[in-house]
Protein: Nudix hydrolase domain-containing protein
Organism: Gossypium anomalum
Amino acid sequence: MASCCTAKFRFSISSCRAARSSRQIPGSLIPSFPLFHSPFARPMKPTNLRSVSASAAVSSGAASTNPTFSWDDVVRVSQPEFNPNDSSNLRGFFDKIKACNRGAELQSEFLPFVVEDQIVGYIHKGFAENLRSFEDVFILSKDNCDGGKVMLHQSLKSADDRTRAVREVIKCLAENELIPGIRNELFPVTSSYGAPVFFSLERAAVPYFGIKAYGVHMNGYVEKDKQKFLWLGKRSLVKSTFPGMLDHLVAGGLPHGIACGENLIKECEEEAGIPRTLSSRAISVGAVSYSDIDGHRFKRDVLFTYDLKLPESFVPNNQDGEVESFKLIPVKHVANIIKRTDFFKTNCNIVIIDFLFRHGYITPECFGYLDLLQSLKSGDCSFLDIVCDRLKHGLEN
């Protein structure tokens, strides 16, 4: 037995593994998710457009199958002549947003995770059974009225105590392959953005506890010859998530203890070699959000979005080994890549679609305009979240 699984947590490997097929508990307190609506909900007639996909495995972030497309493939499918009969409607954009908002019908399978009488996350009933043996850390209650909930043990009073205790549980679960891809990076656990931090949680465990996670995504663009271009990155093939997929110029999760603006500056330097003199000019332009259920994982992500206009002479240079290469592509062609392929890391599609709205590439004349605009915040992304970021942590010009 691993050294971390001490008697303090009364952990049983066999019971932990058996939890995969645990019994179901009726009911839950989870409020209804916003329903995903699209004017294209009815089946459409197939087009002659060839389906271009990186790979089925990559769509879920799996590292076992790397995409095989090259920059030449990206450029080829982005050209207008690749599909001269391409429809002007927004169906391809709706499909990409829907891919980030799966599983709303499965919400009853999750239990509220409650800390200090505040709901901070949602845990799948099956996964919650993995926590039952750690009775000095987690309490699983069953209530005839609400269907039950998961709480922290009352002896864990401080944020530091909770962080240490939960870290040991996560370590045990990871050693038994119940939480893969440990990052050794802590994310804050709060009831909402800017609220007091109850404790900090390993990043890889965040979706298993349904904690709302925040990130920063930046569109780096160039204007030349009266045309806008976006710098795109191609993720390293050794990345644990979405290897080889297309990405923004700069993006990253928001760890505990760092403000959005400062985190963006750090990511700009690490991912693209952008000096502070340039990155400090990035403009906070709002947020997008999504809610995605995939098995025991419940991603409730809010992405704070930034735009940075770069000089024509700037060429990005990755510093941390997470980006394989970069390419500058006209914005109109980037829109075609999103509509026609699965080349992008899934949540990047949402951020770029938001960019297309704000820079006039998607206009009210497009059928489904308002529905698509609203769907960019399909997750829990309150107005307060955006205001707090812009006033306290954003980079404003």
User: Anything to note?
Assistant: Residues 6-40, 42-51, 55-64, 383-397 have pLDDT under 50 and may be disordered. The longest strand covers residues 212-224.
